[in-house]
Amino acid sequence: MLKKMLMLFIAVALVLAGCGSSDKSASNAGSNSGSSVNTGSINTGSTDEAQEENDASNLPPYEIVIAFPTSSSQTSGIPEVEQAINEITKKKINATIKLMPYSYASYAQQLNLMFASNEKLDLFVSGVNGAYSSQVAQGSMIPLDDLLEKYGSGIKEAVYAPFIEAARMNGKLYGIPSNRDLAADRELLMRKDIVDKYHIDLSQVKTFEDFGQIFKVVKENEPDLIPLVLFTQISTPVDVIASMYFDILGDRMGVLEYGNSEMKVVNMYETEQYAQLLNTVRSWYEKGYVQKDAATTKDTGPVLVQAGRAFSYIKQSKPGSDTQASRQTGYEMVSLKLPPAYSTTNLITQFLWSIAKNSQDPERAMMFLNLMFTDTDIINLLAWGIEGRDYVKVSGNIIDYPEGVNATNVPYGLNQGWLFGNQFKSYVFKGDPEDIYQQTDQFNKEAVKSPALGFTFDSTPVKSEVASVTNVMNQYRLGLETGSLDPETLLPQYFSEMKKAGIDRIIEEKQRQLDEWVKTK
């Protein structure tokens, strides 16, 4: 009898166990809309968020210091943007951020000071003004391959792989490009009210030299308005227009001339095209078309236009640049473009996100960088600021300034969504086409590709020569390229000094590396 009762008890237990198993299987099957159990689908959504928060709670608190350049003076609203981002990052990676914007004119100096003093710095924009190879050579940043593999899955999904590969040096990755315009043509951006007032016929302006016709009208009729100012101190008219003829190969110390089938590296400063550009700008300067302190000013073109002191500036162009400039300056701006658009390695590596050698927690820095490419709230906070204060939603994905707010008084007016990670996931500002990011993607794909696209020069073997030539360039380049210095007398002296400093040795090494790179293609 006892034996029968025991056997009955075991049978009931087995049945109950089977029922529990069946219920669980049915539940799993229902959640996956099928009879098979997909554990990958189950472990997504809220489960991942809970796991993410659990993982974050295991991390010690950390502040991520972020340095970047800006041409905007509208930075008073940054603290509130930081606070809003911190509410997200505390939950996701138990970290806060500190944004440190610097003007383009002082950015390189500020970085060098931070590196030299080992000041705390985690993420920074590398490659500005072609400095990427020298920053790698100086050990300013750490390799990112392992960190990207472990913490950057969102970056790898968002950024076209060849653009990431273009940032490699000696097989190692030191910077991540943002999703933005990765090609460029050139444009003269002008105040439309002045163009309309004097009936300036832009259709008659075909070349860079023809810009002088426009400046003449402004000079004669608006004596208090500077006809031409610099977009940034390091972005001279000559430097921008030279991109029509040369791939600067990262640092201008040896360039590739478009149309050169031999892939020969040449000294741009000894070419006829460069001399002609200098002569044109010099003539403008002598006629009073160019701001007198162009070689030394720290004021940017958008700031000077916004202040009512300037008419125009020259910069690299992309889809939507007119409306972006209008937002920056507070004036409706119109552009005159000089095609074609080119895509070069330098356009990719001139603005990269790198992790500084000074970082005390590179893993956390990469975690936040990944959020800059994946978290829509963080992307829009960095791009546009605080909803209701800096912008309002108009419809769908379109935003505009709130009532009473414009480019001159918006607290957070960086207007640099292109810099902060994945611009293609951000809002579109009113005035831009709703498909502006699709246009940008197409612009990138249709641009003329430099034959050296993907080549990055490693300046390590000639770092002492690079330092010496950089000193010479710092002495002459801005003065010559703004027209402040006379090229007839000083250009020969300029490249004579560069030869003494070792530019021929740099060109020789760059040619050797380019030849080796070509063999892999």
Give the structure's gist in a few sentences.
This protein has 521 residues and is an alpha/beta fold. The protein is built from 22 helices and 18 strands.
Describe the structure.
- This protein has helices at residues 2-31, 39-42, 46-57, 78-93, 104-116, 132-137, 145-151, 153-158, 161-165, 192-197, 211-221, 237-242, 272-286, 301-306, 321-329, 345-349, 362-374, 376-384, 436-446, 463-481, 487-501, 503-519; strands at 62-70, 95-103, 123-126, 168-169, 172-173, 176-177, 184-191, 229-230, 246-247, 255-257, 265-266, 312-317, 333-343, 352-355, 392-395, 398-400, 428-429, 448-449.
- By secondary structure, the chain is α/β, with parallel strands linked by helices.
- It folds into two domains: 54-181 and 348-396 and 420-431, 3-Layer(aba) Sandwich (D-Maltodextrin-Binding Protein, domain 2), CATH 3.40.190.10; 184-317 and 455-519, Periplasmic binding protein-like II (D-Maltodextrin-Binding Protein, domain 2), CATH 3.40.190.
- The strands form five sheets. The protein has a five-stranded mixed sheet.
- Helix 4 (78-93) runs antiparallel to helix 18 (376-384).
- The termini are far apart.
Keywords:
single chain; 521 residues; alpha/beta; D-Maltodextrin-Binding Protein, domain 2; 2 domains; five-stranded mixed sheet; 18 strands; disordered N terminus
